[in-house]
Amino acid sequence: MRCPRCACQDDKVMDSRSTKEGAGVRRRRECLNCGHRFTTYEEIIQAELKVVKRDGTHEDFDREKLRRGIEKACWKRSVSTEEIHSLITSIISGLEKDYDREVPSVEIGNRVMDALRGVDKVAYVRFASIYRDFKDIEEFVAEIRQMGKSRKTDNKLAVPGKDHAEK
Description:
The longest helix has 22 residues, at 137-158. Helix content is 46%, strand content 19%. A hairpin with a 5-residue loop joins strand 1 and strand 2 (24-31). The chain is globular. It folds into two domains: 9-44, no CATH class; 47-158. It has five helices and six strands, in the order E-E-E-E-E-H-H-E-H-H-H. The protein has helices at residues 63-73, 81-98, 105-119, 121-131, 137-158, and strands spanning 11-18, 24-31, 37-43, 50-52, 58-60, 102-104. The strands form two sheets. The chain has a three-stranded antiparallel beta sheet, with no helix packed on it. The chain has a three-stranded mixed beta sheet with strand order 5-4-6. It is α+β, with helices and mostly antiparallel strands. Helix 3 packs antiparallel against helix 4 (121-131).
């Protein structure tokens, strides 16, 4: 593994752990040249998925493109790198389970929005604004109002035995 700081290929593994569900391995490494510590992830590579774009074209599924989109949405938010990695792993494993060779880009976007909605509402709106190509502030407001309606519905369901008509 090449050190991200000095590009040396000599390192030692300090710690190895299985990632969730045993689908991969997380390794902490230390460069033997400069002493920099860094983390790597190793996982099984499934049969390559093709993404069917909205215009009908096909392209290879790009995990890094997915990661960059999620990281941009979570920029300066309190979402950890581990949470982002977990989201990506969960989304990809779901896609690989549900789709054999081709996955619509719309499905990827919807799964990312569903995952972000549960992690950080601001990151969700950021991602949705680009994914849905919001044209003006009214579309932002409509999305935020829809989130508020969903939250009220979720809160009513979350309090068993409570009659909400009394409020």
